[in-house]
Amino acid sequence: MAQADFRFETVEPEFDHLTLSNAPVEVLATGFRWIEGLVWMGDWGTLLFQDLPRGRTMAWSERGGLAVWREPSGNANGQARDREGRVVACVNLERAVVRIEHDGRITPLATHFEGCRLNSPNDVVVKSDGSIWFTDPPYGIANDYEGVRQMSELAPTVYRLAPESGELTAVSRDFQGPNGLAFSPDETLLYVAETGDQRHSDPTQVLRVLPVSDDGRSLGPMRDLAKVAPGYTDGLAVDEAGRIWSSAGDGVHCLSPDGRLLGRIRLGMTVSNLTFGGGPHLNRLFIGASHTLMAVFLNTRGARWP
Fold first, then answer.
1. Whose CA is closest to 269, among 246, 290, 245?
2. For residues 122 and 75, what is the distance between their CA atoms, to the nearest angstrom?
3. Is the CB of residue 57 less than 8 Å from the CB of residue 73?
4. Which of 28, 82, 151, 268 is the most exposed place for a label (fewest CB within 10 A)?
């Protein structure tokens, strides 16, 4: 593993306590076309991530290094782990959310809504009650690089898939391009990255937050939380204190729960997605930086299910 000359930049003193002076950013692997969908598989000691345009899901571990986990992946994008340890993935070519069973079989979970095909599910999270929440912008059907160019049949939407009945509900249609998403540690808030209509020269790009209802099935009024620049929030991860670690055009930005910028990890390249993992403490931040997989140990831990 190579160590690179990246730097931490403090904006508020709190950030100094989150970094470790003897834990530099490490380059784990490179040569990918565009990294997405990072998810930590704790009992495997393995990180899964997408080499999206190549249509393959990769696996990295400290002992085993890099390997192909699933190919073809259907140009899969975001992925998460459910309560039974199975992988739930957003698949561009299928325009679907699927579950990868323990024996490798693929079970479609969501393909249509109100008689129309989904666009291209982008990112997914699994709540502690087993419900699956995902975003559905048209990005994966906008060109032939990350999928296949096709017509959109539905407006961009955030959905909830009920754990037992499989009922699909539109929980928010107030987005032009909903992208990455994550729950707060207590699951009372849902953070959603708005990356806008990419056909416009100046798309709306802002991190938004929505309160989750007491029954956990719907969302309250949305508000803007933070605007990340340069670049924008694409993927995000939340730590144990509710801080938000956001992708950005120059690396990773750390935000307080109320949206204040605390500090940056300057990488000099665009970050697409990130996740906590690395062992039982979840104190290692894995970073998908364009074509390069990176990681850094931090003095905080990733959020766990309540």
1. 290
2. 11
3. yes
4. 151
Q: Which residue has the tokens 């009992």?
A: 43
How far apart (Å, rounded) are the C-alpha atoms in residues 216 and 131? 9
2-297 CATH pick, 3.40.50.150, 3.40.1440.10, 3.30.930.10, 2.120.10.30: 2.120.10.30
Q: How far apart are CA 43 and CA 211, in angstroms?
A: 32
Residue 2 has pLDDT above 80, yes or no: no
Sign (positive/negative) of CA torsion 53, 274, 126, 260? negative
Pairwise CA distance, residues 35 & 121, whole Å = 16
**Greatest distance between any 2 Cα atoms in the chain:** 55
**98 contacts 75 by C-beta, under 8 angstroms:** no
Q: Is 158 buried (19+), middle (13-18) or exposed (0-12) by CB count in 10 A?
A: buried
Q: Is the pLDDT of residue 28 over 70?
A: yes
DSSP character at residue 282: -
8 Å CB contact between 295 and 30: no
What is the pLDDT at residue 199?
Answer: 83
* Structure token pair of residue 58: 């990769």
Q: What is the tens place of the pLDDT at every residue in 139-180?
A: 999 999 999 999 999 999 999 999 989 999 999 999 999 999
Q: What is the pTM of this model?
A: 0.97
Q: Cβ neighbours of residue 144 under 8 Å, at least 6 residues apart?
A: none
3-state percent breakdown (helix, strand, coil) of the chain, nearest 5: 5, 45, 50
Q: With beta carbons less than 8 A apart as the criterion, state whether 189 and 182 touch.
A: no
Alpha carbon distance 251, 224 (integer Å): 21
